[in-house]
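example protein:
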Amino acid sequence: MPELSRSQLLVYAVIAVAVIVIGARWIRSSGPGPTGGAELSFAADSAHEAGGTQDVVVHVAGAVGRPGVYRLPAGSRVTDAVRRAAGFAPGASEDAINLAARLSDGQQVVVPGPGAGAASGTAGGRTGPISLGGATVEQLDQVEGIGPVTAQKIIEFRDQHGGLSSVDQLDEVDGIGPATMRTLRSALQP
């Protein structure tokens, strides 16, 4: 076998490094499991965002196959998060959440379990906080301190800002003051 020149060795080394980097990125981005808390580092998140891609990190909880924290591409929907969390668990109330809602960074998606159908959004049947990510005007109207006009303003604000990552963002909605915010923190979740 003929001996390789220095420039040929350099070219092969560059190709090998490129293949390793591309392979590592592919493996990292295609992992189906949740991103564990130890794997999420703020330095990695900052470096990732500085690179131009703005993924969203969401917490999927409730009646799903694998609850956990997941990184998804920007523009993903609730249905993508549920699919990434191994789909609905047996008995999940699939119609109780808006699967078409756009995800926002830091959002928690809670899939209700058995007996928590769409009617659970009423004041008497509600057992937990309403998710701002998929709440309808009718569901928000049932929350103390929110009427139909304010509920519509919340939906419009959510749509304009690509979702809500915190209940505290509602402070920016016209008609919601400090007293209402105290009530909303216990009745709503991002």
